[in-house]
């Protein structure tokens, strides 16, 4: 079944800005462009991990999930079909375009486009960060984690946990303010998080990238001004995964969390419930209150 987040793709009017943002601010490396001038960013030896496609409006293009074994793709197709979701087997051309060996695609009940892949192409010892940096925690833990917003979080749990096998790590429930669930598929504390939002919409709130050194969080924080990147949440430490991080707005409506020191989970993990997101910090920047909480899209009735 699903073992990690392989890649994320978005459509965006500000795709070109990622050439500077992705390298100078994030410390990634540009890969050769994808089709139609799509900007591709590497954060490790995988061919690429982020694709930002020039478009008139911001939207999610795909979330790419990796399975360990080729045969697992067939299992994912059958699990989805039991749940009434049709997965398509992607063409050779699509797999080549994504730099993977095999691919299936499906849209979840909230309209998010997903791809499940096997055999993401790796180029060992080739990653060169775009600026001085110790690099990112990836490997078996995949790219990082994403937080999706949806109005019916219990249905979200049924789908991602019950159908796709994401295992609950924790809940954070702040009465009247936040209802969220965190899921692991490898030792990273969470690869997927679901947060409840008002009815009628769903969205992609943030991508977390974990750096290998605490100073890389500080260096990125220092660069907010130089790269004119708006802060979303100040420096802080999360209650559940203990990640020390800050959140900032990418050029494409969703946020990036630059994190360090996240705990790891194992087979003996017992889920907890917390009633606050941060031990300290992670204060919402006053200007961030005026921005949408991510790349939002309306839900079909
Ligand atoms: Fe996060």
Automatic annotation (TrEMBL):
Q: Which InterPro entries does the record cross-reference, listed alphabetically?
A: Glyas_Bleomycin-R_OHBP_Dase, Glyas_Fos-R_dOase_dom, VOC_core
The VOC domain covers: 4-119, 142-261
Pfam families documented for this protein: BphC_D1, Glyoxalase
Please give the name of this protein.
VOC family protein
Species this chain originates from: Nocardioides astragali
């Amino acid at each position: 079944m699903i073992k990690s987040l392989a890649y994320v793709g978005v459509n965006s009017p500000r795709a070109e800005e990622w050439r500077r943002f992705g390298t100078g601010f994030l410390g990634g490396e540009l890969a050769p462009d994808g089709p139609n001038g799509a900007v591709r960013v590497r954060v490790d030896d995988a061919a690429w991990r982020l694709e930002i496609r020039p478009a008139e409006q911001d939207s999610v293009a795909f979330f790419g999930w990796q399975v360990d074994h080729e045969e697992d793709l067939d299992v994912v197709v059958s699990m989805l079909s039991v749940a009434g979701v049709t997965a398509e087997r992607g063409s050779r051309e699509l797999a080549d375009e994504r730099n993977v060996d095999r691919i299936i695609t499906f849209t979840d009940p909230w309209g998010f486009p997903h791809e499940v892949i096997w055999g993401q192409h790796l180029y060992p010892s080739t990653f060169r960060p775009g600026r001085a940096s110790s690099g990112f925690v990836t490997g078996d833990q995949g790219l990082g984690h994403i937080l999706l917003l949806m109005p019916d979080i219990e249905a979200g749990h049924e789908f991602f946990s019950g159908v796709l096998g994401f295992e609950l790590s924790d809940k954070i429930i702040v009465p009247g303010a936040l209802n969220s669930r965190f899921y692991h598929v490898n030792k990273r504390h969470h690869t997927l998080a679901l947060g409840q939002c008002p009815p009628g919409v769903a969205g992609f709130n943030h991508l977390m990238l974990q750096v290998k050194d605490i100073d890389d969080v500080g260096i990125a924080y220092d660069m907010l001004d130089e790269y004119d990147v708006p802060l979303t949440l100040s420096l802080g430490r999360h209650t559940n995964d203990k990640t020390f991080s800050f959140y900032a707005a990418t050029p494409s409506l969703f946020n990036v969390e630059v994190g360090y020191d996240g705990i790891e989970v194992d087979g003996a993990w017992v889920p907890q419930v917390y009633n606050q997101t941060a031990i300290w910090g992670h204060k919402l920047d006053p200007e961030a209150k005026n921005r949408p909480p991510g790349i939002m899209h309306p839900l079909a009735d």
